[in-house]
Amino acid sequence: MVQKSVQWFMIVLGAFIYSLGLNGFLVANHLAEGGFVGVSLLLLYKLHIQVGVSFFILNIPLLIVAWRLFGHEFVLKTAVGVIGVSVFTEATRHLQVPTHDPLLAALYAGVITGIGLGLIFRTGGTTGGSDIIARILRHYRGLGMGKTLFAIDFIVILLVMVIIGKEVAMYSLVALFVSSRVIDFVIEGASSGRAVMIVSDKHEEIADEIHKQLDRGTTLLQARGGYTGTARQVIYCVVSRDEVMRVQRIISTVDPTAFVTVNPVHEVLGEGFTYDGEPSSIARRRRKLFS
Questions:
Q1: For residue range 136-186, what is the model confidence (pLDDT) as tens digits?
Q2: Is the pLDDT of residue 222 over 60?
Q3: Nearest C-alpha neighbor of 65 from the set 126, 128, 136
Q4: How far is CA 7 from the centre of its chain?
Q5: Minimal CA–CA distance to 188: which of 287, 279, 81, 265?
Q6: CA–CA distance, 253 with 238 (Å, rounded to integer)
Q7: Is the pLDDT of residue 88 over 90?
Q8: What pTM did the predictor assign?
Q9: Strand 259-265 to strand 193-199: parallel, antiparallel, or no bridges (unpaired)?
Q10: pLDDT higher than 80, residue 46
Q11: What CA–CA distance (Å, rounded) separates 78 from 63?
Q12: Alpha-carbon distances of 42 from 45, 98, 276, rounded to whole Å
């Protein structure tokens, strides 16, 4: 029950922060957005219809369709996001920060709206609009959500370019890009990392150095060379982003000819990242070594 309450609170908080970025920097500096918010901004600039009102009205038919297709939990979270954005956008419409530098406005708008949307998405909520359309098209046509969301944003920004002007569209694209990066950061948080795979004949030495210097665990995977057919072991290790260079230095010292791949990991759970329980055997051994 407590966890559910926290989720609802985070959706409301995210909607409030998003509205601050929307009014404070986008509306204040006559910039635009993607998706249904972008459509609402166009209606504001050309027909003087308030963003909160038009955004809520545009989402009503989509929420009805989503209720029939996706069930009440998704729709309830989405409805809270939609109502939150609509209400807070109206409540904060006078909190504006006009500036003579539209690039600065786009950057600030991207950061603040990204934080707000990240909090909403992190709890499984949405702000409706494009997201519902993308889910409906995936349900009926099997289209990928990413492609649909991109197509909708592209169409809206294209309308902004035609109706308002190309400079506004370009600055709005900057805000969209920054917002997407901030959303990723909020969702992934400090739990993101890098997965390192190392192919080397000196795998035991490399693994031991990783254990001693980084206090990170490793996994040895059985593999076979595709060309030579030689059996060998591959080291698999997940480290934080700031530890990648240290791993590379270890590898270059022990075996400069080792084959290494580094891949981003969007979420890492467990000991060394999110688990604060008893230390591992590696950590205990290291403490004994330096005590």
A1: 887 787 776 667 777 888 899 999 999 999 999 999 999 988 988 888 788
A2: yes
A3: 136
A4: 17
A5: 265
A6: 20
A7: yes
A8: 0.73
A9: antiparallel
A10: yes
A11: 8
A12: 5, 18, 49
And the tokens for 156?
């809206």
Amino acid at 25: F
Q: Distance (Å, rounded) from C-alpha 238 to C-alpha 266?
A: 11
Outline where DSSP puts E strands in 147-205: 193-199
Cα atoms found within 13 Å of the Cα of residue 68, Cβ hemisphere only: 5
Q: 287 pLDDT exceeds 70?
A: no
Please provide residue 143's backbone torsions phi and psi, each rounded to the nearest 5 degrees.
-75, 145
Q: Which phi and psi (to 5°) does residue 194 adopt?
A: -135, 130
- State whether the Cα torsion 165-171-175-176 is positive or negative: positive
3-state SS, residue 160: helix
Strand partners, 196: 237, 262
Q: d(Cα 234, Cα 232) in Å, to the nearest integer? A: 7
CA distance 249 to 261: 14
Nearest-angstrom CA–CA distance, 25 and 112: 9
Taking a C-beta distance cutoff of 8 angstroms, is the pair 234, 223 a contact?
yes
Q: Which residues contact 264 (CB under 8 A, 6 or more apart)?
A: 192, 194, 195
- Give the CA angle between residues 263, 267, 271 to the nearest 5°: 105
Select, from the ranges 16-30, 180-194, 215-229, the one with the highest average predicted confidence (pLDDT). 16-30
Cα distance from N-terminal residue to C-terminal residue, the chain: 44
Q: Which amino acid is at 194?
A: R
Q: Which residue has the tokens 């909607």?
A: 15
274-281, long-range: CB < 8 A, 24+ apart: 274/191, 280/217
User: Which percentage of the chain shows pLDDT scores above 90?
Assistant: 46
Structure tokens at 248: 């590379």
Helix (H, G, I), strand (E, B) or coil at 267: coil
Q: How far, in Å, are 16, 18, 67, 129 from residue 10 at the CA level?
A: 10, 12, 22, 19
Supply 87's token pair: 């209400």
Give the Cα-Cα-Cα angle 145, 151, 156 (nearest 5 degrees).
130
